[in-house]
DNA sequence: ATTGTGGCCTGCCCGC
DNA sequence: TGCGGGCAGGCCACAA
């Protein structure tokens, strides 16, 4: 499930392997994969004959800039892989096939005479857009300042985790990383987002930064310390308490009821 | 406005 | 051995 770490790996791959190259053709066999009301001809018209000049990322959105001013936006859903000239951006993804079946190539750029940049996405949950509205996304989770994190959470009655997953508020955190960050910060996902004390906000910011760095280093959002324990019967790797499972913010959520503190404890009560 | 829900899509895994 | 039902989750439309 590509979250920030995977998409950053894709960005680095695109940057190292595709910049400066000429787009010679576009293959978009799946109309569903084109978002924002565009058709294959639109993408061709915007990109063929251009060179790729920058590979940027905002949250889970990969942005490829061209020298003619257009920007290609690539989304990977949970099962999309970026492959450039046969090199995949990440080794494996959780919750999807490890195979690289050509029929799952949903979008392809031909680069130069023989190069290929393509999205291989078994479940078609990703998509491609032209000149996407980057400011529809909040600040990137990588490098978000304490003030930006505070602003993303302030005044909200929504569950803390739901707010962390809201890409318009903070871009890049997905389900697994949210559980990992909250576990590390010792905060219950069901806490109202706006209920955090200043000390808790500092703790959350610190652990967000550390977790993003760690998962970037390890190379995947599924490589956190909590992830292996997000299974029936799983226990907290910190204190051994049986983990709790519930749907929070519409997603399967696992947390430790012992050390991830809830609203009751904030008010000085023990559950 | 904010918050919650369901559906998209399809491969994979479990239990029968 | 094959089959069917859950399940996974990023994102979006829609409802309250």
What does this structure look like?
With 271 residues, this protein is α+β, with helices and mostly antiparallel strands. Helix content is 27%, strand content 21%. The chain contains seven helices and eleven strands. It has helices spanning 4-18, 40-47, 146-153, 160-165, 175-185, 198-218, 263-266; strands spanning 23-27, 52-58, 61-66, 71-75, 81-84, 87-88, 105-111, 115-120, 127-130, 244-248, 251-255. A five-stranded antiparallel beta sheet has the order 1-7-8-5-6, covered by helices on one side. Strands 2-3-4-9 form a four-stranded antiparallel beta sheet, covered by helices on one side. Strand 3 and strand 4 (71-75) form a beta hairpin. It is elongated. The two termini are 34 Å apart. The relative contact order is 0.15. The structure holds a DNA duplex (16 and 16 nucleotides).
Task: From the structure above, extract its key features.
DNA-binding; elongated; disordered C terminus; alpha+beta; five-stranded antiparallel beta sheet; 7 helices; 271 residues; four-stranded antiparallel beta sheet
Radius of gyration: 20 Å
Helix count equals 7
**Regions with pLDDT < 50 over 5+ consecutive residues?**
264-271
Query: What is the overall pLDDT average?
Result: 89
Side by side, the strands of the main sheet go 1-7-8-5-6
Structural class: alpha+beta
Q: What portion of the residues fall into strands of 2 or more residues?
A: 15-25%
Major sheet summary line: 5 strands, antiparallel
Order of helices and strands: HEHEEEEEEEEHHHHEEH
Looking at the structure, what is the overall shape? elongated
End-to-end span in angstroms? Answer: 34 Å
Count of DSSP E strands?
11
Helix content: 25-40%
């Amino acid at each position: 499930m590509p979250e920030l770490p995977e998409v950053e790996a894709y960005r680095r791959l695109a940057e190292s392997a595709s910049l400066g190259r000429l787009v010679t053709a576009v293959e978009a066999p799946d109309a569903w994969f084109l978002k924002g009301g565009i058709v294959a001809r639109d993408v061709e018209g915007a990109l063929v004959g251009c060179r790729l000049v920058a590979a940027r990322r905002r949250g889970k959105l990969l942005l490829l800039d061209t020298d003619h001013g257009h920007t290609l936006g690539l989304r990977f859903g949970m099962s999309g892989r970026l492959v450039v000239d046969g090199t995949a951006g990440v080794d494996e993804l959780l919750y999807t096939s490890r195979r690289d079946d050509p029929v799952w190539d949903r979008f392809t750029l031909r680069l130069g005479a023989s190069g290929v940049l393509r999205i291989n996405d078994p479940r078609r949950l990703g998509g491609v857009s032209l000149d996407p509205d980057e400011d529809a996304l909040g600040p990137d989770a990588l490098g978000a300042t304490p003030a930006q994190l505070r602003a993303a959470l302030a005044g909200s009655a929504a569950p803390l985790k739901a707010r962390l997953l809201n890409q318009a508020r903070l871009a890049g955190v997905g389900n697994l990383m949210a559980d990992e960050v909250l576990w590390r910060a010792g905060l219950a996902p069901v806490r109202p987002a706006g209920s955090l004390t200043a000390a808790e906000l500092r703790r959350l910011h610190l652990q967000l930064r550390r977790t993003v760095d760690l998962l970037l280093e390890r190379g995947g959002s599924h490589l956190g310390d909590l992830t292996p324990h997000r299974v029936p019967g799983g226990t907290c790797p910190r204190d051994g308490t049986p983990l709790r499972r519930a749907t929070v913010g519409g997603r399967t959520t696992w947390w430790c009821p012992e050390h991830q503190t809830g609203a009751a404890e904030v008010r000085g009560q023990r559950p």
